[in-house]
Design goal:
alpha/beta; single chain; 263 residues; six-stranded mixed sheet; Rossmann fold
């Protein structure tokens, strides 16, 4: 096998930029243009406003009611410069979400634009569709889906605390990379409240076509939710053992439904 054939085989199994070759002492024109395109896609993912009406229509088709909120960051430029404002709920939005969810729910799903509108638009509807089936299987009461503009992960804690939700699942666009501008992250926090630390939540990341499929992500999140409700915690003390649960379920039907109770 020639060196070029070896590099070609490796490039077929990774999105990393390897074996790019050179033209004299510089990269090839193709490599430079590919990098420029990837950088442009990443910038667009951060800067392009999310089409909230399209997302809401997709969720309505799943039978879900939505409520719109916004963080304390008034626009995108402030949001990017002041992450702290993206973690706080605007006063008017707090009133809106409380009015939309007057009774406590076990689970609240919040969808935030985050740092990739591309990731949210491409993956959130499919993930919610897969999650809904598992939420119904778990018998958990679900509040209206909250659509949060200019949102950081911790915003979900304040939203959920304001309506007395037992747990919050924040779906948010992840910081784009040069090979993954369309990635969605999911963050689970049990007993959410303002001031929760990142170590107190579980994350399932890289949810996208070239990464973790929505159905697989939903399976892991449902396992984490089930375990969180049993153990009354989330974060570093709650390890993702969904792979073990899957093996048990395949070996003993019904084991998955009981998983988490013995931890």
């Amino acid at each position: 096998m020639s060196a070029e054939d070896a590099w070609r085989a490796l490039r077929g199994v990774t999105a990393a930029r390897i074996g790019l070759g050179r033209s004299g002492s510089a990269q090839t024109t193709r490599a430079v243009l590919d990098f420029a395109m990837a950088h442009a896609l990443a910038r667009d993912a951060v800067r392009t406003p999310l089409a909230w009406d399209v997302l809401e229509a997709a969720l309505a088709a799943l039978g879900q009611r939505c409520v719109h909120v916004a963080s304390a960051a008034p626009d995108r430029d402030v949001y990017l410069r002041r992450p702290d404002l993206g973690r706080r709920l605007a006063a008017a939005s707090r009133e809106r979400v409380v009015a939309a969810c007057p009774e406590p729910r076990e689970l609240l799903i919040v969808i935030g634009d985050g740092l990739s509108s591309t990731g949210v638009a491409a993956n959130a509807p499919g993930l919610v569709a897969a999650l809904l089936r598992l939420v119904q299987d778990g018998g958990w009461t679900l509040g209206p889906i909250v659509l949060a503009a200019q949102a950081r992960v911790a915003l979900g804690d304040e939203v959920a605390e304001s309506v007395g939700a037992r747990a919050v699942l924040m779906l948010i666009g992840e910081r784009p990379g040069l090979s993954s501008p369309d990635s969605l992250g999911a963050y689970l926090t049990y007993a959410p409240r303002v001031g929760r630390r990142d170590a107190e939540r579980n994350c399932v990341s890289n949810i996208r076509a070239g990464g973790l499929a929505p159905a697989e992500a939903a399976f892991r999140l449902a396992w984490l939710l089930r375990a969180a409700f049993v153990r009354r915690l989330s974060g570093v003390q709650l390890k993702d053992e969904s792979d073990v649960a899957r093996e048990l379920a395949n070996a003993r039907p019904g084991a998955l439904a009981r998983d988490g109770e013995g931890h």
